[in-house]
Amino acid sequence: MSKHSRVNRPIWFDENAGCIKVIDQRRLPHRFEVAQLETVDHVITAIREMFVRGAPLIGATGALGVYTILASDRSRAMDDGHFGSECRRLKEARPTAVNLAWGVDAVADAVLPEKTASDRIRACLDKAFEIIESEVENCRRIGENGMGLIEKISREKGKNEPVNILTHCNAGRLACIEYGTATAPVYKAFENGINVHVWVDETRPLNQGARLTAWELSGSGVPHTVITDNAGGHLMQHSMVDLVIVGTDRTTRAGDVANKIGTYLKALAARDNNIPFYVALPSSTFDWQVKDGMEIPIEERSPDEVRFVTGVDRDDTVTRVLVPPQDSPAANPAFDVTPAHLVTGFITERGICDANEQAIVSLFPENRRDDVS
Ligand code: MRU
Fold this sequence. Notes:
The structure is a single chain. By secondary structure, the chain is of the alpha/beta class. The protein has helices at about 40-50, 55-70, 80-90, 100-110, 115-155, 175, 185-190, 210-220, 230-235, 265-270, 305, 355-365; strands spanning about 10-15, 20-25, 35, 165, 195-200, 225, 245, 250, 255-260, 275-280, 285, 310, 320, 335-340, 345-350, 350-355. The strands form four sheets. The chain has a seven-stranded mixed beta sheet, sandwiched between helices. α2 (about 55-70) runs antiparallel to α3 and α2 (about 55-70) runs antiparallel to α5.
């Protein structure tokens, strides 16, 4: 049981206050703060400014966020034009994770047939809760399906030798609600007594690995080491990485993977060193409309996220400091695309498949398209 178990989800609905509550992930690991989201503008800010982040959590926040459109002004809850334009605004909060539009659209489809404001609000919450619970279950299954990969390596190495897993960014429970995607097989293996050790890429510029993945693993007692983003290739060359598992924000039907900037370089290094590179994802992260990863919109974020770093000083005061010269420009593409040919396989709620359209669609036949598969 995690020592952070009193907070076991990064988002929840407070029935008494009638509002959404989220862990403000910008403050972790040095501060634990909860934010209250009462209007759609609060929800959009929370997604854009990354109080909440990670594809499945962004999807869940979008789904639950529809509630704020209906409940903050009940007199407009039956105004379909207003509802549609507010849903569009919500979907535009961040561009890369496909889960956001998926979550908002699924809830909007459940809401629109209802004929009273109260029924719309009820339908909205019911659907959002259903989505959240099904994402939790999907992540649990990803853990079960992925554990075998770790178990097999452990058998080959012998149980005294840890299985070294490298991960990038945070694809843990903070990104997902529970278990995580990339971390779910690790937690499952750890629970089952398998000797594991995780190399945690710090993940500049916002350090989701160093701040969030390390916080989660530490809370659960999983052995781990934070490394610079540039250390992975070296560790792989020296047989210190057995397996790479990452998450994704959007994966095309042909298996191209958009994930946190730097993922592509890890995949290249893994291929050069013959190390398996797996991507863990729930089906909500597949974009069934897109084949070519180069069509995925890549978010450009503020250069200030590159220029400044935040941490605590010796007095435990949170401090933000400038790194490059004041007048040096910076660029901040937030994601990159790893082509399918560099991916060993996908770990999904339905099982593991190869990274090609035929294999993906065999696991998810409801998305088969006769013209292409
Ligand atoms: O910018 P972020 O922190 O939202 O990026 C998150 C990632 O890149 C994760 O790896 C991805 O969303 C998968 S989360 C299970």
